[in-house]
Design goal:
By secondary structure, the protein is of the alpha/beta class. The chain folds into two domains: 6-73, no CATH class; 78-187, 3-Layer(aba) Sandwich (Rossmann fold), CATH 3.40.50.2300. It is 38% helix and 19% strand. It is built from six helices and seven strands. Strands 5-4-6-7 form a four-stranded parallel beta sheet, sandwiched between helices. It has a three-stranded parallel beta sheet with strand order 1-2-3. Helix 4 links the parallel strand 4 and strand 5. Helix 1 packs parallel to helix 2. It starts with 5 loop residues before the first helix and ends in a 12-residue tail after the last strand. The relative contact order is 0.13.
Length: 199
């Protein structure tokens, strides 16, 4: 299925499910749209057909899922990514960090989970605050560059969409915050794909 707009996706899947005896669906796409995962979750809940999302938008981990859904996604959750990042921070004794987020859905859960990881640890984490960015009404990135300069930590945990990450890294590079001495960990369930984030 190459056309992943919601209507076409639902119609095509329903056509396939109604015309063939199917025990399950393995779904892969090359989008990064969470809408694909939401549609597949809905279809699984309504039809009781197991669906496995293995790449792209279908693998963006949803929590919670629809009641009755048997939608399995092969991707790592934000919590799992943070656990790995904190292991790396601990290994290198990088205990001072700041959190940078946008208003991307799930950012409050991201901040809460960072607090859970730091509060429940015996490591002396130095959490230097949370910067929540609103990228609207700042097309030139002037406010964004100023806000990024105000963060006092060299290690930054960033939670945002892929498009927002591109704008943030562009502003960070222009502000001199993306070179040697600065470490950014980009966290999110929608950042995968074969394209690289800008250097």
């Amino acid at each position: 299925l190459n056309d992943t707009n919601p209507r076409s996706l639902i119609v095509r899947l329903c056509d396939v499910l109604s015309s063939l005896r199917i025990h399950g669906v393995v779904f892969e796409d090359d989008t990064r749209s969470e809408a694909v995962a939401q549609i597949l979750d809905f279809i699984s809940a309504q039809t009781s057909v197991p669906i496995i999302g293995i790449n792209g938008g279908s693998a963006i981990v949803l929590t919670p899922k629809e009641k009755g859904s048997t939608f399995l996604q092969l991707g790592s959750s934000t919590e799992q990514q943070l656990q790995v990042i904190f292991e790396v921070l601990e290994e290198y004794d990088w205990t001072a960090f700041a959190v940078v987020t946008t208003l991307f859905p799930g950012y409050e859960d991201f901040v809460d989970y960072v607090e859970v990881l730091t509060d429940s640890s015996f490591i002396g984490w130095e959490h230097r605050g949370v910067l929540t960015l609103n990228l609207t009404d700042d097309p030139e990135g002037t406010r964004l560059r100023r806000q990024l300069r105000e963060v006092s930590a060299q290690i930054r945990l960033l939670y945002c969409s892929r498009e927002e990450a591109e704008a943030i890294f562009r502003a960070a590079r222009e502000a001199g915050l993306a070179g040697p001495g600065y470490i950014w960990f980009v966290v999110g369930t929608n950042l995968g794909g074969s394209d690289q984030l800008p250097e």
